[in-house]
Design a protein that fits this description.
Layout (H helix, E strand, L loop, with lengths): L2 H14 L6 E3 L11 E3 L3 E3 L5 E2 L4 E3 L14 E2 L13 E4 L5 E14 L25 E10 L4 H4 L9 E3 L8 E3 L3 E5 L3 E5 L11 H4 E3 L7 E3 L1 H14 L3 E7 L2 E15 L2 E14 L5 E12 L4 E7 L7 E2 L5 E10 L4 E11 L4 E11 L15
Subcellular location: Mitochondrion matrix; Nucleus
Keywords: DNA damage, DNA repair, Mitochondrion, Nucleus, Phosphoprotein, Transit peptide
InterPro entries: ApaG_domain, ApaG_sf, Hemimethylated_DNA-bd_dom, Hemimethylated_DNA-bd_sf
């Protein structure tokens, strides 16, 4: 199943039904004349037997013509309170991929969008970045596995090798990634269940989880998952999330400490940071430039400017509103700060700057044990 086809065609319909009702994807058709797939899912509520129509939407697909969308599973009620358990199957509400929950993280969300009305707010001088104090609130994220069958359909919108580690050898800059590992916010989870014993294709699925029909969800953690989580906790831990919206473009930043390495008789501290840009409006825009300011506790202030991000200049539209990527930064000091802006272009050629919320780079982890990756 092309996960990208589910994201827009179904989600609007899911939200219209009572959360207690279960939804099943029944069928689709193909417009072979255009090379596009036109999905007209008929969503049926298993609780009341009612069917609802879905507005026709078109999606690019590399699948052969005539391929029919197959049933994946049955939607479950979205949890408004509490958390999802290990083994919960889900669809990502923004990127549309299939995944399974490994374990939760309880982060502190610092949301700078709680601002006074526009009529009361005062314009900031050029270069200012707002100095208001933002209080964090607890927010649940999940460590998840992505179904490898869906990776080709999301690779242009979200990196599928974004969770990286420092290598365990002398090269202080060497990194390696765990493909198909992601962090997902609670509100991005659309839970479903499946009768398949191996519903997710990923090399770690059977190492981490086992099928247990007596449980709900019917996938429980193996000892290898528990050991891997405990051993790699300092390098996987998600603790702080920062969010800010400028002119309907929301930027979310999650920093991760990766560890310290010695290079040329000095200590080098490494962080990775995950950034998600999301267009909350209807206007089509494109990211053109990035502008970073990086302050180190050693007293240095570095400015970084460049075209796009990770070699791309993503377009954010109503159909594909989000782009997510990860990058890295190193300092010769145990802590620092980062902030900046993205230059965004409208379709008429005009530009505006979107603020990147300031975030701290902290290294208050135990540096004695190197990351262990997913060796067992």
């Amino acid at each position: 199943m092309a996960a990208s086809a589910l994201r827009r065609g179904l989600l609007s319909t899911v939200s219209k039904y009572n959360k207690k009702h279960t939804l099943r994807i029944l069928s689709s058709v193909v417009d072979s004349s255009s090379g596009f797939e036109v999905f007209r899912p008929r969503v049926q509520c298993r609780a009341c037997g009612l069917s609802g129509g879905v507005q026709q939407r078109r999606f690019m697909s590399s699948r052969p013509e005539g391929k029919i969308l197959e049933t994946v599973g049955v939607f479950e009620a979205v949890k408004q309170h509490g958390k999802y358990e290990t083994g919960q199957l889900f669809l990502h509400s923004v990127f549309g991929y299939r995944g399974i929950v490994l374990f939760p993280w309880h982060a502190r969300l610092y949301d700078r969008d709680i601002t006074p009305p526009m009529a009361e707010s005062k314009p900031e001088p050029p270069g200012a970045h707002g100095s208001k104090e933002v209080k964090g609130k607890t927010h649940t994220y999940y460590q998840v596995l992505i179904d490898t069958r869906d990776c080709p359909h999301i690779s242009q919108r979200s990196q599928t090798e974004a969770v990286t580690f420092l290598a365990n050898h002398d090269d202080s800059r060497a990194l390696y990634a765990i493909p198909g590992l992601d962090y997902v916010s609670h509100e991005d989870i659309l839970p479903y269940n499946s009768a398949e014993q191996i519903p997710i294709q990923h090399e770690l699925f059977e190492r981490f989880l086992t099928f247990n029909p007596a449980k709900s969800p019917p996938f429980t953690a193996r000892d290898t998952l528990k050991a891997w989580q405990e051993k790699n906790h300092p390098w996987l831990e998600l603790s702080d999330v920062h969010r800010e919206t400028t002119e309907n473009i929301r930027v979310t930043v999650i920093p991760f400490y990766m560890g310290m390495r010695e290079a040329q008789n000095s200590h080098v501290y490494w962080w990775r940071y995950c950034i998600r840009l999301e267009n909350m409006g209807n206007e089509v825009v494109q990211l053109r430039e990035r502008h970073w300011r990086i302050f180190s506790l050693s007293g240095t202030l570095e400015t970084v400017r460049g075209r796009g991000v990770v070699g791309r200049e993503p377009v954010l539209s109503k159909e594909q509103p989000a782009f997510q990527y990860s990058s890295h930064v190193s300092l010769q000091a145990p802590s620092g700060h980062m902030w900046g802006t993205f230059r965004i272009e409208r379709t008429d050629g005009s530009h505006f700057d979107v603020r990147i919320p300031p975030f701290s780079l902290e290294s208050n982890k135990d540096d004695k044990a190197p990351p262990a990756g997913y060796t067992f």
